[in-house]
Structure prediction request, 1139 residues.
Amino acid sequence: MNHLIAIWNDLNTSARIGFGIVAFFAFCAIFAPWLAPYGESEVVGDVWEPIGGAFILGTDQIGRDLLTRLIFGARNTMALAIVSTTVSFTMGAVLGFVAATMGGRVDQLLSRMVDVVISIPTLIASLIILSAVGTATPTLVLVIGIIYAMPVFRIARAVAIDIEVMDYVEAARLRGEGLWWLMSKEILPNALTPLAAEFGLRFCFVFLLIASLSFLGLGLQPPLADWGAMVRGNADGIAWGFLHPLLPAACIAALTIGINLLIDRWVYKASGLRDDQ
Amino acid sequence: MSEKLLEVKDLLIEADIDGVWTPIVNSLSMTLERGEILGLIGESGAGKSTFGLTALGYAKPGCRIVSGSIKLDGVELAGKPDAELRDIRGNKVAYVAQSAAASFNPAHTLEEQFAESPVQHGKMKMSEARKRSIEIFRQLDLPDPEHIGERYPHQVSGGQLQRAMTAMALGSDPDIIIFDEPTTALDVTTQIEVLGAIKEAIKLRNVAAIYISHDLAVVAQMADRIMVLRYGDLIEEGDAREMLANPREPYTQQLLNVRTVRESRYDHDKEDIQLKVENVTARYPGTLSDVLTNINLEIVKGKTIAVVGESGSGKSTLARVITGLLPPSQGSVKFNDRILTPTLKARPKEDLQKIQMIYQMADVAMNPRHKIKDIIGRPVEFYLGITGQEREQRVLELLQQIEMPEDYADRYPAQLSGGQKQRVCIARALAAEPELIICDEVTSALDQLVAEGILDLLLNLQKELNVSYLFITHDLAVVKAISDEIVVMYQGRVVEQGTKAEILEPPYVPYTELLLSSVPEMDPDWLDDLVDRRKRGEAPTAESIAS
Amino acid sequence: MFTIILQRLAMGVFILFGVSILITIGVEALSGDVCSAILGQAAEPSTVAACQAQLGIDRPVHIRYVEWLGNILQGDMGTSLANDREVSEQIGKRLGNTLYLAVTTSIFAVPIGILLGVIAALYRNSFIDHTISTTTLSTIASPEFFVAYVLMAIFAVNLGWLPAISNVDSSMGFWERLEVSALPVMTLAMVTVAHMMRMTRASIVSLLASPYIEMAKLKGLKPSRIIVKHALPNAWSPIIQVIVLNLAYMIVGVVVIEVVFVYPGLGALIVDAVLNRDLPVIQGTAMVFAAAYVLLFLLADILSTLANPRLRHRR
Prediction:
């Protein structure tokens, strides 16, 4: 508990705002079934009922309650994003550490392979692969996880190399410690802070990618509530002055801004920048 | 002129350390007359650099001048806004930083940067400044003074760059130059040339100077008066020669005695040869030239062999070859008469255990996320297979051996001082119960008094445990203090080797003579004497060696 | 230094090859579906097989790859399955439109982004810096379509100044074209300015912490001279990297924006092609995108090497 209080005191105003935003959405996501007034795909009213009327946030293009859809959307999209980010991190970090620690040909080989894959813009690659293998949820997780494992590999490798040149790693090598010890006991504990900040950033990218993919029709499939798909579904309403699609889009923006505000503070601390004058 | 050039009174400076403003200069005062050289000496954390910078009215980022007065030629500087202070900076008061390489802008030539101050302060036009640059470069003994100004900073050597920075400071004809540890980063032989050139140039122009350093012997050569600082307080102040002859305070005396030689316990007995390096030649993979050529070396059990050399001599590479990090392209290393497998990865644990290494920077040599007891305990477990309660007991015994209290076992490296960290590294090496310990510049990053403590510890441990040391260093004072045998290296080759007595007494091999003669002594006339002798050809210089 | 550049070029070519192989594999995975998609799920296997033979997708992958590679190097990217037009012709036209967007955006966004970044760095931690940083953060963190729809709602729906749908075509004159493309350009510009500002600010801040900047202060130089003579010459290298990398960002950002505004560019093309399983188009377009990405990264690398004073004047 004291530890948490210490962390809170450490944050400045903007980081606290960020924390608040993230906590709010996380809360909605976790307690969605109890918070939402209606069922996830329940049709409750007329198409595009106004915001602020009988339904607090109006209804969507089929007549479902927008507030409910937003709450469930938080849950579905965030869950997908967290799992995908975790997958990408596990793959990317392990491979990155191995490349940094083993060096030599292994490093060269892995790095070249990643260089090639990373050269295809993320959105394009996801478009192609997902339309080929379909958009069942586990597939989504895997595809996005693998695609984002590439930049994570680069960063984990860079962090590990920065640590690996330290004398204490050489001292461990001289002792005769094996690869597993070097990676888990010497490098990992010192890599946690930069990697944690990176995790937050990756989450944002993943989240935005999922939103964009859903917007283009290749993300979570209906009737699952998903913010990106909701923007797409409600988009036609803008021409008639219905501002409904802005709500899910605003939620996406809010969450990513929140995470960025939070991460900015950590990244600043971790890099030890001296900012006066 | 009865008025002093610089008069600083009761200056209090605070620094932001972890969010708390802590005093680092405690109401210090100093005066400086025209043409006088004042030495500010102290160990790290003494506040000497911060104090010296106030002559420019400048506080480094993270520091602030709280109170006190700084009068330059009667004009008060404290509290003045930057815009007004700009008039005196680079103009009446100039600064020479510790690292010339970092302080020169890589995008401009040397002469452009030389000319900048005088031209911008309206003292002369660009063409005049160029002429002046040639003149001052010549005064500072820079090679090819007519054309060196056209070069970029990364195109000249470290020693030349340091002199160029001094030239830049002299460019605007300042009243005071502040020298902030200008030769600390240089090799001992390069240092001499820079010191000689600086002293001559400032004496010639009657420029006052504040010379900041941690090295009393160097300051002794340059200063008329010396102020000894410690943790922001003044310990002693006085005329340089008098202070060196009769130091009043115990701290000053300690600083002076730092280079005493210990008795030599060596009896020339060649029987127990522990490590033998035979005809080793090595190069780093992918490079075109050998870093080590035909090295032969022997270490006797229980004795200390010092490997001395400057940067580029290959001494650290030798350690890497012995430990197996760099397999030699020719030759072999034998331990107790058995050839050691050239590559680290292929060596059995027993071999790895017998040779341990201690590094120069203790901060980086220990994993900041491990507790002291784990740092020391791991080798115990890894090599000796001892775990649990017994392992903890062993760790406590080792802490005792390095003279540290038991409760330090639960601390993290960041909570220890520089000397304590190095002691823990020593304990880590001892935990393996080795026969040979390679000490790679282990005292070079420490303050002199702390380094003394470490050397004492190492010698006592040697007596107790009969462990041998391969002591790599560039510091001849350390060599004189602890070695039994000495190996002198230069550009990858062994220049000379023998017992301490053989090497340190005449007749000398030219490179050894150069090295020995370049070590500053506490005698204030030493530098002038050496420069004279070199001019007369009686003492070697770097050029004469290279040929 | 030229050896470094040559090495990078060689690496770029190698990567392009690797990318082309990956794309082919990806498309190969798609091609199983093409004929079923065209003929319907209930089609007879023999009909499907005939369709495959006609399209040439029954031959082994590596043969098709080599043929495709040979064709591409001669400028022939095949024919679209959806509308029988030459792929290269379609790509050419669309590429032109996308480039128009990118260039028009850059003309405004690049100078503004860099200027804002420099100002924010110089006045860091002041009110100006915080305002600029927070605004750009909001823009970056939002998905492109959010910014797009907001701008659409304001300028097209509410104020009615600009058209909501930007179907540009070659018949339009200079001003008409500009008006119709205004919204996508504005959206792309906002995102680009935000990215550029942040990256420039970070580079300059780290530059200002260099010891030679402190030295310049201690020489009593005016702040304006320090910025212009000391900071700027060393800032070109990172700033050029920022510019070129942002061009690369724009390429990916363009896809979503084109879809929102129905702008006939390369991004819209690939999305349509993917949804329609139009293999040759997918292959060609993906290759163009990837090539642009690789070339831009390569350019960033080479230009920043050239701009680095230490590497320009060798020992």
